[in-house]
From TrEMBL:
Domain Glyoxal oxidase N-terminal: 147-436
The protein, known as: Galactose oxidase-like Early set domain-containing protein
Keywords assigned: Signal
Organism: Chytriomyces confervae
Signal peptide start and end residues: 1-18
Cited InterPro entries: Gal_Oxase/kelch_b-propeller, Gal_Oxidase_central_sf, Glyoxal_oxidase_N, GO-like_E_set, Ig-like_fold, Ig_E-set
Domain Galactose oxidase-like Early set: 493-590
């Protein structure tokens, strides 16, 4: 981020400052295409987004040229999308994967390395062109074109834009959950041994978890994952601040001590079960009933208390979407799942973005049905939900803050960007219109899919159909990105002096100082928003870290990086400075990780603005220890500091 750009944004923001503070944000559609469908949306540095799709098995734009492939990627299913929210446009370049990553799990790890783990097995390696290692373009039946990826561990390095697909798990996993742990290794849970068919529940259960790098062989069998089957796909899981892994499937919750040896096969001596979800017309709280989950902001002033929230999903009795939200503080012994206020709009498959001011945006999803389905075939869900809801944990209340226009049903996502705005991505089989008739249509009856209902339920004709190609169909692949500017972007923004700071490494426990431009709004708080990877309403990466401000004046702020990766797992974060009204700066990228602890001096006088966040006794003590001490290791940051 160039300094000029930051200054220009601040000036633009000040120009509109005179208006009444807005309570609603604005949606607009960015020009251009993501190239591949963002079933998997992974934020990369420099306003780039990795999108991964399933291999197309239905015709797309140039059916005569590439009968079964996405011509944008020649079937290799991944693109890096360049986002330009100021110009309102996007562009893409292919980032080919060789091993089918459809419905993999993923997380951002140490040094910003992306892990994409598991995926789909069906593959036709004989159809790979040996000379180019790209799929052949004359396949005539529906299948996939990539090597078997169901057991694959892929890493993507955003710096070199290259994949390493050389490693494997102990077993195959389709729909696994992947969590980057505090010390940087990866926890990989559940998934199915082949595509799950609820009408044929044979030989698909994989109720195990494992680690990368590998720790145990075979993988550890979990009694609760086994019990929950088939409701154990994309488990809800997080690294917790005090060190354990949170995992919830169906309606049961466990805390895993990953540092503890699980014992001989079948013993599983390393977990405790905590609160089960109360009985509601809502079980199970997982795929395909698909709520979303997120963590409330973790604050130093609250000693990093963690709260897990689940919102939305399906009412079992009617297949209507639910507006329920429930929360749990899993590190407080004896805590129970308790209701939060209902969302203004019921939805299944919602997506959540935790914003820099600590509010949570809920968007996307459907009003009826369930998750799942094949691109081009019938929707399992209908009645897309367009209103956008915002939860404020401080007031424990919801408001509706906008209305989007693009349906985001199965295989969608939401991502917070560096400038404090939000994008929505993905959604497959958009031809719900053709099946259900109107955007407001709601499925009738109780069956999941009735393939004989209606005349257009099979939108992309199979070879045996007599219909012309694509007759009466909408494109089942949504390549557009919609962009939301929250109301806070109409306020005057603080301005972080980015020169030398953007991309710098910050080590756990360090006391850091960041320069601000006096031309921006006065700063009252800072927050660190972890880069997002999201799929299937699951986002194990997303969390907002709110350090206490130790010193702030109009040109300088001092705060402390959390003491370890359990609170803030390693990887890239957006560092935001916020005004007292909660208007965020444009963020700079900082890379949290291990290393020598450094500390800038905390000025004891000369503060020209009140410090909004009170400093807890814990951090005050550590400030005393570190004040005046500047250690080596902050080379990237030093240039930006007045030291
Ligand atoms: C398919 O294309 C490949 C080259 O990409 C060619 O070698 C092969 O003969 C073709 N097969 C058929 C059946 O046309
Ligand atoms: C949890 O889910 C199981 C399986 O669906 C169900 O039998 C049980 O009643 C549920 N427990 C509660 C408390 O709702
Ligand atoms: C599916 O829909 C058709 C047409 O409405 C109806 O005749 C048929 O009974 C339905 N099938 C089932 C299993 O409900
Ligand atoms: C803010 O504090 C820093 C550190 O004490 C100091 O160098 C700087 O001059 C102060 N800025 C203003 C505008 O007072
Ligand atoms: Cu999927």
């Amino acid at each position: 981020m160039l300094l000029e750009t930051v200054a220009a944004l601040a000036t633009a923001a000040m120009a509109v400052q005179a208006a009444e503070p807005a309570t609603s944000g604005t949606w607009s559609t960015l020009a251009g295409s993501t190239g591949s469908l963002c079933i998997h949306s992974i934020l990369l540095p420099d306003n780039q987004l990795m999108c991964i799709e399933r291999p197309h098995t239905k015709p797309v734009e140039s059916p005569s040229l590439y009968p079964w492939l996405n011509p944008n990627t020649k079937g290799t299913t991944a693109t890096v999308v360049q986002l330009d929210t100021q110009k309102g446009e996007i562009s893409f370049q292919p980032a080919p994967v060789k091993y089918n990553a459809f419905c993999a799990g993923h997380s951002q790890g140490a040094d910003g390395i992306i892990h994409v783990i598991g995926g789909d097995h069906s593959a036709s390696t004989t159809l790979m062109d040996a000379s180019s290692n790209w799929p052949m373009q004359n396949k005539t039946d529906a299948g996939t074109f990539l090597y078997d990826g169901i057991a694959k561990i892929r890493t993507f390095d955003p710096k070199t834009k290259t994949w390493d697909e050389s490693k494997d798990m102990t077993t195959g996993r389709w729909y696994p959950t992947v969590v980057t742990m505090g010390e940087g290794s990866v926890f990989i849970a559940s998934g199915s041994l082949k595509n799950l068919d609820f009408n044929d529940l044979t030989a698909t259960n994989n109720p195990t978890y494992e680690f990368f790098p590998q720790r145990y062989q075979p993988a550890i069998r979990s009694q609760i994952l086994d019990w929950a089957y088939p409701h154990n796909l994309y488990p809800i899981a997080y690294q917790l601040p005090q060190g354990k892994i949170f995992m919830m499937v169906s309606n049961r919750t466990m805390l895993i001590d990953a540092s503890k040896d699980p014992g001989p096969a079948g013993q599983e001596n390393n977990y405790e079960e905590v609160a089960s979800v109360p009985a509601m017309d809502h079980q199970p709280w997982i795929y395909p009933n698909t709520p979303t989950s997120f963590l409330l902001p973790l604050k130093e002033s609250e000693n990093w208390k963690v709260t897990v929230v689940l919102c939305g999903g399906v009412l079992i009795s009617a297949k209507d979407a639910s507006s329920d939200c429930i929360s749990l503080t899993p590190e407080i012994p004896g805590a129970k799942w308790t209701p939060l206020p209902n969302m203004p709009h019921a939805r299944l498959m919602p997506d959540a973005a935790v914003l820099p001011d600590g509010t949570i945006l809920l968007t996307n999803g459907a009003g009826w049905g369930q998750a799942g389905g094949n691109a081009g075939d019938c929707q399992f869900a209908s009645a897309p939900v367009f209103p956008t809801d915002l939860y404020n944990p401080t007031t424990n209340s919801w408001t509706t803050v906008g209305t989007s226009t693009i349906p985001r049903l199965y295989h969608s996502g939401v991502v917070l960007l560096q400038d404090g705005s939000v994008i929505t991505t993905g959604s497959e089989m958009q031809n719900y219109l053709d099946f259900w008739g109107t955007p407001d249509a709601k499925g009738v009856g109780t069956e999941m899919v009735n393939v004989t209902r209606g005349v257009k339920q099979q939108c992309w004709p199979s070879v045996s159909d007599n219909l012309p190609l694509g007759a009466g169909c909408t494109d089942p692949y949504e390549y557009r990105i919609e962009h939301f500017k929250p109301a806070y972007l109409s306020g005057t923004r603080p301005v972080i002096v980015a020169a030398g700071l953007d991309g710098s490494k910050m080590t756990y426990g360090s006391t850091v100082g960041v320069q601000l431009s006096a031309s921006g709004a006065a700063i009252a708080s800072v927050s660190l928003a972890r880069y997002t990877t999201t799929t299937h309403s699951t986002n194990t990466d997303q969390r907002l870290i709110v350090p206490s401000v130790l010193f702030a004046n109009s040109t300088y702020v001092v705060f402390k990086i959390p003491p370890n990766g359990n609170i803030a797992p390693p990887g890239n974060y957006h560092l935001f400075a916020l005004s007292k009204d909660g208007t965020p700066s444009v963020a700079v990228r900082v890379l949290l990780g291990d290393g020598a602890v450094t500390a800038v001096a905390v000025p004891t006088s000369g503060s020209t603005v009140p410090v909004a966040t009170t400093t807890g006794t814990k951090s005050a003590a550590s400030v005393g220890l570190s004040a005046g001490v500047v250690l080596a290791g902050l080379i990237g940051l030093a240039a930006a500091l007045s030291i």
